[in-house]
Amino acid sequence: GRALPGAGRPGPRTGPLHRRGAQPPGPRGGRQRRRRPPGRDVAHQGHPSRPATLLLSVAYDPGWHAWVDGRPVQTEMLAPALLGVALGPGPHDVLFRYEGFAWYPELWALGVFGLVGLGVLGYRER
């Protein structure tokens, strides 16, 4: 068969995503804006037109906490690498913050003391 004209070649880049300065469209049913504050925080401003779940693509960990409009909310694991919070319709300011395990220095000290203790006990038995 005969090839169609232009087959195998990319067409002209005239779609909305290819115009100079054009932004990809937002999610269906609302507007959104995300910013990354300094540190371990992720902030998001959204305006869903219906109840929605805001998804953050990070490995789920119980150390992730979320606040919607300044109030703490429950996070949920949507998949092992997806964290989410439920939002109602309307404008919302969402803040995600990671607060990791705070007892690492104490655990290191306990480990060092444990190893020293085992070393002393082993030395005494000789």
Describe the fold and architecture.
The chain has a five-stranded antiparallel beta sheet with strand order 1-2-8-4-5, with no helix packed on it. Mean pLDDT is 75; it is low at 1-29. It is an alpha+beta fold. The chain is 17% helix and 35% strand. A hairpin with a 5-residue loop joins strand 1 (30-35) and strand 2 (41-48).
Write the layout of secondary structure elements.
Elements (H helix, E strand, L loop, with lengths): L29 E6 L5 E8 L3 E5 L7 E5 L2 E3 L2 E4 L2 E6 L4 E7 L5 H21 L2
Antiparallel strand pairs: 1-2, 2-8, 3-7, 4-5, 4-8, 6-7
Report mean pLDDT, rounded to a whole number: 75
Question: Any low-confidence stretches, pLDDT <50, length ≥5?
Answer: 1-29
Q: Which outline best applies?
A: rod-shaped
Q: Biggest sheet, strands in spatial order? A: 1-2-8-4-5
Query: Number of DSSP helices?
Result: 1
Fraction of residues in β-strands: 25-35%
Number of strands: 8
Largest sheet: 5 strands, antiparallel
What structural class should be given to the helix and strand makeup? Answer: alpha+beta
What keyword list fits this structure?
alpha+beta; 1 helix; 3-stranded antiparallel sheet; about 35% strand; disordered N terminus; about 130 residues; 8 strands; rod-shaped; single chain; 5-stranded antiparallel sheet
Give a summary of the structure in a few sentences:
With 126 residues, the chain is α+β, with helices and mostly antiparallel strands. It is built from one helix and eight strands, in the order E-E-E-E-E-E-E-E-H. The radius of gyration is 26 Å and the shape is rod-shaped.
